Amino acid sequence: MSKIFKFDRWAPSLSESTTAEEIYKLVKSMDPKNNEIVFDMTNMVAMTTICARAIFGRLYTELGIDDFNKNIKFTNISEAIIVAIKWGIMAEIKQSIQY
Amino acid sequence: MSSKIFYIPERLTSQYFKDFLDVAKDIFKRDCWHIPDVVVRVDRINKVDILGQLLLYKFFDYTVQNQCFIKPVVNLIENKYLNAEMTKLGFKNLMKNYIKANNLKDDDFKYNECDSFFIAPIVLRSDKSKAIDANNIKKIENFYGGNKDIQNIVLQSIGEIGSNFQEHADCDTQSVIVAKGEKSYIEVACADNGVGIINSLRAFGNKDTEVMRRCIDKGVSSKIDKWHTGSGLWIINQLVNKSNGTMIICSQNCYLKNKKGHITVGESPLWKGTFIYVKIPLLATLKLSDIFVGEISPTVQLNII
Fold it and tell me: How far is A75 from chain B (nearest CA, A)?
């Protein structure tokens, strides 16, 4: 059964890395490795690339591409938030390869 | 040092920022502390914009924090034009409260909407979890109600500039970001007296101007291991290019200016820390996703339901 993670309380804009860190911990507590999580981005207008990397880039590299695509889903998401998240994922992938 | 008069130049604007720096630079010298009988003359000012007002505010902030002057004389009321402009943009209240309490409370940063524009000064608190006031952000979103792409460009610009400053202004707890917008454009100005871009990005060049030129490149960041992507200023610069806007970044002895896609880098009088000014025309065709075309690997996909 999928779990819904609503971003509404941080809408319309997420820009602080400490808030991103809190969100990441909340997501981790939902065990994304073994549960499907649907991120409902209703009312989210903007997300900085730092926040996108700190939440979704980190999840992507930790879960791996297969589990990320299987368990992490998005709904009501704008094109602008999609590119910010993809950019955050790419930045984290690049950084993990360097390590 | 004996008594001193600071004559603030007549054009206190983004276009003439170097004129102001030429006057202000002395406060950053070590021998410019505890000077008695200082007079800051603002009566010549006949043109001011949000960057000018922000720099004037940070000038006073720095002199107070570092006890540069002993009982300085500044009479803002003498200049009716400046007084009216600072009242309109909220800086008069900020400065009054700052001088009174030597600190600013969240209540001092008021969102204000006039006939055709809004102004929102936002303090970047050292308590980073609530640095950018969510209420002000919601009001800005409402101002541009109905157009999601424009709302995104405005909030993304404020967020990228604000988070960039917040993460780098380690020594400055009074950084202020100011957004001023009309339906057709957004202006954002941010200033601090922190370590400065040149110092924090020193690894990216030997010459100061080389570092300044590189600060808008993708992947250039001093904190890439702390979730930074090194793309905040790159995104802003791309938005400025696509919209024929203006961007000025000044740090220490260098500046970078992007005017309608034409970039110049050069030396400037000293500013301790960094300031940035951005003006983005909000074209109907401007979209954040457009600047990432060809930049994102097709292997990175999101599962959207």
Answer: 5
Radius of gyration of chain A from its Cα atoms, rounded to whole angstroms: 12
- Count, residues in chain A: 99
Contact list, B287 vs chain A (CB under 8 Å): 79-80
- Distance from C-alpha of A62 to C-alpha of A64, rounded to nearest angstrom: 6
* pLDDT at B12 > cutoff 80: yes
Q: Give the residue extent of every domain in chain A.
A: 2-98
Contacts of B244 (CB under 8 A, 6+ apart): B260, B261, B281
Please indicate whether, in this complex, the C-beta atoms of A93 and B163 are within 8 angstroms of each other.
no
Task: Give all strands (DSSP E) within A1-99, no chain letters.
Answer: 3-6, 13-14, 37-40, 46-47, 72-75
Tens-place pLDDT, residues A19-53: 999 999 999 999 999 999 999 999 999 999 999 99
Q: Provide the total of helices (H) and of strands (E) in chain B, helices listed first.
A: 9, 14
Contact between chains at B159 and A13 (C-beta distance less than 8 A): yes
CB contact under 8 A, A49 and B289: no
Q: CB distance A83–B288 less than 8 Å?
A: yes
User: pLDDT at position B173, please?
Assistant: 55
Interface of A with B in 59-88 (CB under 8 A): 60, 65, 69-70, 72-75, 77-80, 82-88
Q: Which residues of A touch B292 (CB under 8 A)?
A: 83, 86-87
Asked if B174 and B143 touch (Cβ cutoff 8 Å), the reply is no
pLDDT digits (tens, 9 = 90+) for A61-80: 999 999 999 999 999 999 99
CATH topology of domain A2-98: Transcription Regulator spoIIAA (3.30.750)
How far apart are the C-alpha atoms of A67 and A36, rounded to whole Å?
A: 9
Residue of B29, B37, B14, B101 lying closest to B64 (CA atoms) = B101
Structure tokens at A43: 């009312």
